[in-house]
Design a protein that fits this description.
The chain contains 13 helices and 13 strands. It is an alpha/beta fold and 401 residues long. It has three domains: 117 residues, Nucleotidyltransferase, domain 5, CATH 3.30.420; 161 residues, UvrC, RNAse H endonuclease domain (Nucleotidyltransferase, domain 5, 2-Layer Sandwich); 49 residues. Strands 6, 7, 8, 9, 10, 11, 12 and 13 form an eight-stranded mixed β-sheet that branches. It has a five-stranded mixed β-sheet with strand order 3-2-1-4-5. A hairpin with a 2-residue loop joins strand 1 and strand 2. Helix 1 packs antiparallel against helix 2, helix 6 crosses helix 9 and helix 7 runs parallel beside helix 8.
Amino acid sequence: MKILEERMLELSDQEKFEQAAEIRDKLLSLQDFAAKQKIVSQDFKDKDVFGIARIEDSVCSVVFLVREGKVIGKKHFFVKSSLESTESEIIQRTLEAWYMNAEFIPDEVLLPHEPEDLEYLSDWIRKKFKQNLSFHIPQAGDKHKLVAMVNENAKFILQEHLNSLENREKQVPKAILSLQRDLRLKRPPIRLECFDNSHFQGTDLVSSLVVFENGKPKKSEYRKFKNETVLRNDDYSSMKEVVRRRYTRVLTEKQQIPDLIIIDGGKGQLNAAVEVLEELQILSKTNVIGLAKRLEEVFVPGESDSILLPKSSMSLRILQQIRDEAHRFAITYHRKLREKRTLQTELTKIKGIGKTKAEKLLKQFGSVKSIREQTIDELSKVVSQSDAERIINFFNSNNLL
């Protein structure tokens, strides 16, 4: 593994980052495999072993899951910090974040530092899991070595993460750097997520989410939403619903939080989105803007004056591109829903064919035209023989075959 580490560092120095990343992945796999084959604890108690690494305001927390003496898995995550944060504060936040979503607690937890408020943490865990959890900060012996190993793992992951960010920023398109400058953002907005609402005369309320990375559409991550709670044309409530659904899932599945969230709407829709982002405690981890009807006018939370972008700027072009894409995606989805409802209505005119059967027929055959062309035997594979006969008779009697 030492040879691989040296080769990875050599490739990084030569700015051959993709090759270095491949070696890094091999190293991590080897480390995982080696750890899982090795008994790391002789007392065979179930343990969670935590380690942290810190470089300025960047922090990586790692937990090794030790069960029956062997490492069965490990997780890492990055914790928001400031230069003034102490190790005790970071450990406290790490443990709260980890056990907030945990379904199981081990016999003991090994830590590199004592948490900021161990009494509160112990009481909180006791109430949540109905049992006590033992915390230890080993100073020597095998347990101390185990914590040191996890700390080293955290250092390695953090350094690779920072190298990756640095490499990513070196390859940032000019339009993204322009957007960073014009919107006065701390970091280039590599990942953009844009929301758009759509409806037709107050019905079929839908929303779209499109994703751009490095200035390019990432269509595999586009999402469409059919409104579930708002029964009338209410853009503010619709925006709240879709933003809540999107980022609740992002948090639950530990997905990437975007660098910039774009709300296609004025101050009202922006404020609706901000309210939800604050509620989910995401607002401090990202940036959010609202686009006015006049595209060059951008609304920012907490600012009374909008930002006016130069009409010839690259920032404006990329915002227009993502807004147009979100609008196109929403309209396409909306049109499909309307067409589906129209087709269902035509089929539900047939006696005995309700919405459920109409959906099954359309799913199987694709269109009403295709359904008309089927034989009774083919239709009977989806609905009953009598329903199939009624369908054929309906189209015959209306001269639709």
